[in-house]
Design goal:
Blueprint lengths: L1 H4 L6 H5 L6 H24 L6 H4 L12 H26 L1
């Protein structure tokens, strides 16, 4: 995408919504990206993994609808949406 944004003769930058990056923008992006490495090391070293035990209970890959609070609420939301869409379709066919 950066390559397409740097060529003003190419109309692909208009489609992708990109533009040429200045040297300052490149340096800022690389510095911010490289700063994530020591932050990750510090987080792994100083924050105990016991603080994240409750996150293991949020298994979003399980197909059981009542396996955790997120999937149960999503099932409830989907059921309500289906009822609403069925009511709307019935109203449209009756009219």
């Amino acid at each position: 995408m950066i390559h397409f944004g740097s060529d003003p003769a190419n109309t692909m930058h208009l489609i992708l919504g990109t533009n040429e990056l200045t040297l300052t923008m490149h340096i800022t992006a690389w510095v911010l990206a490289l700063l994530t490495i020591p932050i990750h090391v510090a987080v792994v070293k100083f924050i105990p993994s016991e603080n994240f035990k409750r996150c293991l209970a949020l298994d979003l890959e399980n197909n059981d609808d009542d396996s955790n609070c997120l999937t149960a609420r999503m099932t409830k939301f989907n059921d309500g949406y289906r009822k609403l869409s069925n009511n709307t379709q019935e109203d449209n066919t009756a009219a």
